[in-house]
Specification:
Blueprint lengths: L1 H19 L1 E5 L5 E5 L26 E13 L5 E5 L5 E4 L8 E14 L2 E20 L5 E5 L2 E5 L4 E22 L2 E22 L2 E27 L4 E22 L2 E23 L4 E15 L22 E15 L1
Antiparallel strand pairs: 1-2, 3-6, 3-16, 4-5, 4-8, 6-7, 7-10, 8-9, 10-11, 11-12, 12-13, 13-14, 14-15, 15-16
Length: 342
Amino acid sequence: MKNFLWLVLPALAGIGLFGAGASAQVGPDGDLTYQVSSRLFGGQALPGEPDLLYRNRYEGEWLTATADLLVMDRVGPRSVPLVRNATTGAELLNAKDLDFKWELGPRVNFIAHRVLFDQDIEASYFGIDGFRASETVYSASNPIAFSIPGYTYTAANGAGIRFEYPSQIYSAELNGRIYLYDRLSLLAGFRWVNLHENLVGTGIVGGMGTEFLDINVDNHLYGGQIGMDVSLLDFDGPFRIDGVLKAGVFGNYTDQAAIVGGRNYGDKRDHTAFLGEINLVAVYEITPNILLRGGYQVLWLEGVALAGDQPATLDLNSNDFQPDTRGSLFYHGAFAGLEINY
């Protein structure tokens, strides 16, 4: 994923750079041609040439606010066996089989224009707290079991084991924006991300549940990011398509609190994490100050502790209960909302 981002960033920058100094025109034969400004190459715009460089897209406005409704899917964790046939050892349930449904969440963004050295300041927040997956396995001819070093829970014939997996993610960021060209701006700033997850195991006997496992992990990410906002297609009218990319390196302060068989275990770990984000946004102008927007977002995290990964390394015979921070998490989905300019 990181290698993919480093390929996409320069490509989109090139599109925005060229597009900033070019305008589309329809020739006498009806074909669409592009005229490139001499200022793109360091010269002065000649008579009749487009003079598009060094113009802020939001010129004349002091505040831009957007509000989106996200519809996201969550992919992860890695392959970790959870339930096996206690007699044959055959795997009956894996952590990657826990299927998260699409969930809704809000995202808001504010850009204050020309407030710091004649450049923009951007603040953004989003959160989704409804991710949840659940699976139940019942024993048939043989008992079934969940087992880690130092502990085993066994469900006899006719009983079952249920795993529930709630997950929440929240993100807030503060960026500075520099408009290099009409269609290209660079951004850099600070970002905070909180990822909270639980993996809960419950034994089901006669319709009654007894909890035997509760793994609670928190990831607190603090770090810097860079990115760009590129107008990929600008039709010199009410419709445009933008691309927004961000990438950052974060300090991840993680903690794990596990209750296994009624006993408490836990520890903390500091680790380096990576975050990458891509947004493809289509914008349609209803009025000069109100615009409809919609698109697709991709977000991934590497170097995080996922609750579903922890049974692979949790060893009650040891004195090391630090969380496993080798997890990768991938979110993707659509969004729709409004942009309002003041």
